[in-house]
Amino acid sequence: MQNHHVRVYKSAATPPRHELLAWKLAAAAVDDAPLDADVIEMIINRVIDNAGVAVASLARRPVANARAQAVAHQHEGGATVFGLPRSVLVACEWAAWANGTAVRELDFHDTFLAADMNHPGDMIPSIIAVGQQSGVAGYDTVRGVAAAYEISVGLTKGIALHTHRVDHVLHIAAGAVAGIGAMLRLPVDIVYQAINQVVHVTLSTRQSRKGEISSWKANAPAHAGKLAVEAVDRAMRGETSPAPIYEGDDAIIAWMLDGPEAEYAVSLPRLGEPKRAIMETYTKAYSAEYQAQAWIDLAFRLRRRVGDSRQIASVVVHTSHHTHRIIGSGSGDPQKYNPQASRETLDHSLMYILAVALEDGRWHHDESYTAERASRPHTVALWRTITTLEDAEWDRKYHDPAPERRAFGGRIVVTLQNGRTVEDEIEVADAHPRGATPFRRDDYIGKFRELAGPHTDSAEQGRFLEAALALPKLEPGDLVDLTVEVPPAALVVPDLRPGLFERHGIREMVARQ
Predict the structure, then answer these.
(1) DSSP E strands: which ranges in 365-495?
(2) How far is 102 from 65, CA to CA, in rounded Å?
(3) Across 158-167, 266-275, 376-385, least confident range
């Protein structure tokens, strides 16, 4: 690996383009390095993982609306949409939008935590959609996914966005462009222009993940994927984009991040070096923010020692800065203690998640978030006794440069009504590669079948799995098999409103008013 140093330059001192970060990202992405066998296997795992969580979300309103928007843009020779027959094809950018929303909705797929945070699986829908429309082979798709992870993970390690309240989808967008470019084997200069474009238009604030978190949380990475497709299309047509997009004196580092004096180091593979970043990422066993995964496992362990949760007087969590500030009481966000909060808010409240896990000893992607579950009086009482504290030692472990030592947990102190304390700690979730029960191929398939099972039959599940497991060997045109069809009844969502893309949408809105 090679560290690329990034800083701001005055316009008159701008280096040649091949010295700029966007060019280095593009060059690393399209480099035709060999793919390691374990990387290929992990990419297959994540394609399976994405499909399961997408199918489980198809009847949720944000996903249904994104799907309706996509269907309004049908395109011969286009891309598939999760839930619909493979004969229904839409323009690839709209497939990226619909499928990306479905994958993200339940907050149940893979993650990477470093200087910033990231859900790199968010990039896969846009890459597959372009691959389907472009008729590429499976191996090139795998090549694209490997490149996307490499670029997005490198940026997530090197450039922190959240400290300036910039949303992490900026790194998703750059990674998606890199992945599409690598899959299509585009020249470096086209990928460079597309990265400049997508970074310029994707920057947004983290308000989407604070306060009353809205349905845009699921849409945000899908929107980044859609913008990535459009940026590649524009660059392929010969159009140029704002540059230098990172180092410019009016660009994002100078004005949105650490300012004109900032310096960053982004680590990327050398030319010819295999892309292995996906092996540093990890999926979820539970539908909740990743920094809560280990705490759910620890809560299950603790409840056996605590006994009746009604005897708990208080719970104090000692953890990293990120966990304390983003999903803990250190966020200063009262919505994280609100029983009427949205599902999107509850899955970003460590206090809520711990309360329910301590009481129930199980976690379910729907049942653990219902309004009834969140408003139970004892749950609310327990919930409000839980606080988090930033702990320097756990913060050091969180940021350890060595992946084999990095930790995303902490220590918990439960004080009972009788004054007795129960303490325990955990470094990583059980499903993490270093955890007690790390996810293997059978776990990915089991998770897929558990999530897809209530919505489609075993034959359709088997057909999809056969295609996914053969991904590197799929012929051009076979990528359309990388979707899951469900019966029409499973897609019915009551009271959906039409929008601009339906001719009668405006008339119905006026009538309602």
Answers:
(1) 386-390, 410-416, 421-426
(2) 10
(3) 158-167
Locate all alpha helices (DSSP H) within 6-78, ordered by sequence.
Answer: 21-30, 37-56, 61-71
What is the mean pLDDT of the segment spanning 308-334? Answer: 94
Per-residue confidence band for 116, with pLDDT thresholds at 50, 70 and 90: confident
Rounded CA gap, 179 and 185, in Å? 10
Cα atoms in the Cβ-side hemisphere of radius 13 Å centred on 386? 26
How far apart are alpha carbons 79 and 68 in whole angstroms?
Answer: 14
| Token couple for 390 | 């930033």
Question: Which residue's structure tokens are 């992490």?
Answer: 168
CA dihedral 247, 251, 254, 260 (to 10 degrees): 50
Between the alpha carbon of residue 207 and those of residues 112, 213, 216, 292, the distances in Å are 20, 8, 10, 20
- Choose the CATH number for 290-426 among 3.50.50.60, 3.40.50.720, 3.30.1330.120, 3.30.230.10: 3.30.1330.120
Order of strands across the sheet that contains 410-416: 386-390, 312-319, 410-416, 421-426
- Contacts of residue 417, defined as CB under 8 A and 6 or more positions apart, other chains included, come to 311, 312, 313
Spatial distance between the Cα atoms of 146 and 275, rounded to a whole number of angstroms:
6
Quickly name the fold that domain 2-280 has.
2-methylcitrate dehydratase PrpD (1.10.4100)
